[in-house]
Write a structure and sequence with these properties.
about 90 residues, mainly alpha, about 0% strand, flat
Amino acid sequence: MNRKVNKVRNRRLLTFAWIAAITILTVFLIYNEQTAILYILATLGVTGLLVLVAIADLSKHEKFSNESPRINDAAAIGSGISSSRRGSQR
């Protein structure tokens, strides 16, 4: 149990160290007016997030869901047609 707590604590400290380092680097680059480097880092960060989302397999969680699929009534609301839920209740 103690190893598990230490492992979580070390991981949390490492995360906060990364956040602190990135914050210090960003403040340093802003102070020295290195906007070109900031633009490049921002672009790489957004690209990394997009790749992470593209790689993530979100569909496997939907396959094992016990909930019934939700019906999208956006078109019915926009056009004034009665909702599919109200129609199915009658």
